[in-house]
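Next comes this protein.

***
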Amino acid sequence: MTRSVSEIEKNVSIMLTNSYAVLDPAAFLPPNVIEVGGLHIKDSKPLPQDIRKFLDDAEHGAIVISFGSNIQSSTLESDKIKIILAALGQLKQHVLWKFEATDLPGRPKNVMIRKWLPQNDVLAHPKVRVLWSHSGLLSTQEAVWWGVPLVGTPFFLDQHMNIDLLVKKGVALSLDYESLTTETILERLNRAIHDRSITRRMKELSREYKDRPMSPLDSAVWHVEHASRHPRGPLSFPGKNMSRMELNLFDVYAVLAVTILAILWITRSLVRASFYLFHLRQSRKLHID
């Protein structure tokens, strides 16, 4: 027998959310909503030899470019790619670019392209100075975890919110795609590299983000096992057995509405009675006079 979505929701013991208050906007959460932001981040593994050597040899540091899986760099407009290449060629840093094509005409000598990057392991390399990304949630969390300043070019959905949050924290810079120019790219990348306050704040945010009683993965495992052992325990959703009226406090709102209306009616009646008595006294006074 199939069950409705509302029935399934009532039997949810816990919910794991890819968020953490240090990085995400603060929110009041019930005890069965567990924040495990950064759950996908693991200890870094050895890099492929060619990538490791490219980063090791970066005397002035390295920049990583990746626009995620939905936005492929190889599908960007040709004029945008030319603008990006013109900017990258003027940098002293090595640039590792996730570019989903075998060849990139006009590629400067300081740029390496790969169709896929082990991004988490790359960001853990000590020579990486900046990540230029689409500001996706997972990339944002990885940059914060490893303390790498971010230059964000959001394209859609939550990417705009992600980069705005980091800009407000002083650990990232925003770079608009539509108005992209060689000058703006150079300005943002150089500022992210050389502005020590951005690097310092990102390192502080990284320490705060990782400073937890247990890792996100261990927390997720413990809470899942706890909910399995105690299905009716403290992590059970307290409102699952309430009616829609009780859960949404409609009964409380109804009482408040009736109380407010009663107060208004009584106040109106008292005001009308006061005016009536006042006019009655005035009329009697005039009659006597």
Observations:
- The radius of gyration is 30 Å.
- The chain has a mean pLDDT of 88.
